Amino acid sequence: LLFLKQLQKDLEEVKELLTKATRKRLRDVLMTEKHKLELEIKNQPPPKPKDVVEEEKSSLGGYTVKINNYGWDQSDKFIKIYISLNGVQKLPAENVQVNFTERSFDLLVKNLNGKNYTMTFNNLLKPISVEGSSRKIKTDMVLVMCRKKREEKWECLTQVEKESKEKEKAAYDTSDPSEGLMNLLKKMYAEGDDEMKRTINKAWVESREKQSKGDIPMDI
């Protein structure tokens, strides 16, 4: 609910900026952001009535662990998410709940070895059928089956993941090969450990020394 309020505030601010923006490029950027926020708000699961929330709180007990590790696969009709949870098959079936919307799902596993486990996926890459989606409890695993609305291959699970891949690709997809290499080296340097940073620095210094001696062309 708090996240939804933040999204709505962001949308209000974008709308206000749109009324003041005069440059076409700025208006285009703001319109794109406006559509993204409206879509995200639309795909948020509806708030639960207070009495249901209170009932859930009292029934949970213990403390809640957010699940970050999972595997996924797909067929023509389904996206399949595999979540490993030791002993989950011993729980009553009603302790494993999945709530689906057209572009999201959230999983709640109650009272497994004294803990509760949750996992949420918002902004799925493509729409799913709520009625056709389900979950299966297997030995030490929960399988979430998201029924695709259209039988097509998904390149990733979420819209955010897709945008991240596109930005990364754009950084290296350049007509100037040396620029693409520089971008790649910058990323490796930023994400690397101390050893990686030393290696890149050493290679860079050696490259500059060779350039100054005329061993290699200066434009490389």
From TrEMBL:
<dbReference type="InterPro" id="IPR008978">
    <property type="entry name" value="HSP20-like_chaperone"/>
</dbReference>
<keyword id="KW-0539">Nucleus</keyword>
<dbReference type="GO" id="GO:0031625">
    <property type="term" value="F:ubiquitin protein ligase binding"/>
</dbReference>
<dbReference type="Pfam" id="PF04969">
    <property type="entry name" value="CS"/>
</dbReference>
<dbReference type="Pfam" id="PF05002">
    <property type="entry name" value="SGS"/>
</dbReference>
<dbReference type="InterPro" id="IPR007699">
    <property type="entry name" value="SGS_dom"/>
</dbReference>
<dbReference type="GO" id="GO:0007507">
    <property type="term" value="P:heart development"/>
</dbReference>
<dbReference type="GO" id="GO:0005737">
    <property type="term" value="C:cytoplasm"/>
</dbReference>
<dbReference type="InterPro" id="IPR037893">
    <property type="entry name" value="CS_CacyBP"/>
</dbReference>
<protein>
    <recommendedName>
        <fullName>Calcyclin-binding protein</fullName>
    </recommendedName>
</protein>
<dbReference type="InterPro" id="IPR015120">
    <property type="entry name" value="Siah-Interact_N"/>
</dbReference>
<dbReference type="InterPro" id="IPR052289">
    <property type="entry name" value="Calcyclin-binding_UBL-bridge"/>
</dbReference>
<dbReference type="Pfam" id="PF09032">
    <property type="entry name" value="Siah-Interact_N"/>
</dbReference>
<feature type="domain" description="SGS">
    <location>
        <begin position="143"/>
        <end position="220"/>
    </location>
</feature>
<keyword id="KW-0833">Ubl conjugation pathway</keyword>
<keyword id="KW-0963">Cytoplasm</keyword>
<keyword id="KW-0597">Phosphoprotein</keyword>
<dbReference type="InterPro" id="IPR037201">
    <property type="entry name" value="CacyBP_N"/>
</dbReference>
<dbReference type="GO" id="GO:0015631">
    <property type="term" value="F:tubulin binding"/>
</dbReference>
<keyword id="KW-0007">Acetylation</keyword>
<dbReference type="GO" id="GO:0044548">
    <property type="term" value="F:S100 protein binding"/>
</dbReference>
<feature type="domain" description="CS">
    <location>
        <begin position="65"/>
        <end position="158"/>
    </location>
</feature>
<dbReference type="InterPro" id="IPR007052">
    <property type="entry name" value="CS_dom"/>
</dbReference>
<comment type="function">
    <text>May be involved in calcium-dependent ubiquitination and subsequent proteasomal degradation of target proteins. Probably serves as a molecular bridge in ubiquitin E3 complexes. Participates in the ubiquitin-mediated degradation of beta-catenin (CTNNB1).</text>
</comment>
<dbReference type="GO" id="GO:0005634">
    <property type="term" value="C:nucleus"/>
</dbReference>
